[in-house]
Structure formats: structure tokens, C-alpha cells
Amino acid sequence: MGTYWAAFLVGGLICVIGQLMIDVIKMTPAHVMSTLVVAGAILDGFGLYEPLIQFAGAGATVPITSFGNALVHGAMAEAERNGLIGIVTGIFEVPSAGISSAIIFGFFMSLIFKPKG
């Protein structure tokens, strides 16, 4: 299977699951997002998310489930190096670049466009 097809199918399946949670189970978007983050964290805890990333590439790294994966992956890696304190520092180390980028780009967009609110 081609890389693009795998990314499309896995990323699309994650989005379909999220949409079904909204439409069928009647979860709020915030609950869906939290559930998908926790699902990504659980999958990484069992060592299942990395093989999914190897198979689907961006289809597995772009959706919100990847954030849960990054949190657990960073915590586990730092815990191996630094013990219990590594759990706390690792949670912030891996996803910090993405979070920082979102804050910085959001700030610049608010300077360019007129924010509402």
C-alpha cells in the first residue's frame, strides 16, 4: 500500500471515529478531543502507536491522538534516563515545540487579522 493511501486511510479513520463520537454518542467536541488524546496515550503505553506511525506516517502523526502519544512517549523516555522526575519533564519536552509554535503563530495571526472576542 502506498504511503499516501496509508496516511489517508488511517488519518481518515481517526477522523471518522471522532465524528461518530459526536454524532452517535453525542459527545461534545471537548470530550471527543480528550478521549482521542487519552486513546493515543494508551496506545503508546502499550507500544502500539509507533508501529501505526511507521505504517501511516502523517496519517498517525497529524491527528490529536498523536499528542497523547507524544506526552507518554516523552515521559517514558525521560523516565528511563532520569527516573521519576523524568516523567514530569518528559511530558513537557516532546510536545513543547508544537505547543510553542501554535502559540507563536496564533499571536502573529492576531496581529495580522482582527480577532473577535
Automatic annotation (TrEMBL):
Chain coiled-coil ranges: none
Annotated Pfam families: SpoVAC_SpoVAEB
Transmembrane is among the record's keywords: yes
Highest taxon, organism lineage: Bacteria
Keyword field contains Zinc-finger: no
Keyword annotations from UniProtKB, A to Z: Membrane, Transmembrane, Transmembrane helix
Residues that span the membrane, as ranges: 6-25, 32-49, 55-72, 84-113
Protein's name according to its UniProt entry: Stage V sporulation protein AE
